[in-house]
Structures are given as structure tokens and as C-alpha cells.
Design brief:
- The chain has one domain.
- Helix content is 36%, strand content 25%.
- It is built from four helices and four strands, in the order H-H-H-H-E-E-E-E.
- Strand 3 and strand 4 form a beta hairpin.
Length: 132
């Protein structure tokens, strides 16, 4: 019985000391949702001068312009799929990538690299699937 209690205490202590790893794929998905919603609420342009962007180190005007092109499609309905690793066209430097979809079609993919010290993503590049 003493051995069982001792092992239980050790197991509880070990479990308490080990925090669960961050779910970076879910964070990447949250970033995609933030970008889609920012496009149809017209708030993305305010982020250019803001250095405190949730989940993102910085944002480029090119991706903001591209997201605004599709704001009406995102407004109707959108889905964000997040994946760990690089996409098939990447060079292996991305830690995650997103595919943003409207209700009818894929709109763009965004390659991301997570910075563990900043706990935020860099946008490496994006590809738009549609000519508007």
C-alpha cells in the first residue's frame, strides 16, 4: 500500500510539472480566422502601424489588399484549414500553412513560420487562387 501511495504521489508531481504543449496548429487556425474576419470588418489596415498584432509578428500591405478583395466571400461564409509543416510548393521553411476557403472555393493559402521566442507567426508568403 505504501508503494502504491508513493508511486501515485510521484505520478501526480510529474504530471503537474509537465505542461501540455501548445497546439500551434490551432493557433495558426485562429490566425486565419482573425485574418478572414478582419477582411470583412475592415480592420486589417489598422494593423500595419500596430506592432501588437495577436499571433502575428507583422503584416504586409500586399496580403491585406488581397484579403480585402475577397471580403464579401468571407462575409458570406468561410473556413480556415490549418496544417502542420509546409505546403507542397514550399521550400520546407514553413512550420504551418493555412488554406482560406469561401463557401464555394479555396481562396488562398498562407505559409507561416512560428517563432518560439516571440510566440507568434511570420507570414512567409501567400498564394491567391482566384483572379478577381
Amino acid at each position: 500500500m505504501k508503494k502504491f501511495i508513493f508511486l501515485t504521489i510521484i505520478s501526480i508531481t510529474f504530471a503537474a510539472g509537465c505542461s501540455a504543449p501548445e497546439d500551434l496548429t490551432e493557433k495558426a487556425r485562429d490566425l486565419g480566422v482573425f485574418l478572414c474576419e478582419g477582411s470583412f470588418t475592415n480592420t486589417l489596415s489598422e494593423l500595419i502601424s500596430n506592432k501588437n498584432i495577436p499571433l502575428l509578428v507583422e503584416i504586409d500591405t500586399n496580403i491585406i489588399s488581397e484579403l480585402y478583395k475577397y471580403s464579401q466571400e468571407f462575409w458570406q461564409d468561410y473556413t480556415v484549414n490549418a496544417y502542420e509543416g509546409d505546403n507542397e510548393h514550399g521550400d520546407g521553411s514553413a512550420t504551418h500553412y493555412l488554406i482560406l476557403k469561401s463557401k464555394d472555393r479555396e481562396i488562398m493559402d498562407i505559409r507561416l513560420r512560428y517563432d518560439t521566442s516571440l510566440k507568434k507567426f511570420y507570414i512567409l508568403n501567400f498564394t491567391s487562387y482566384l483572379d478577381y
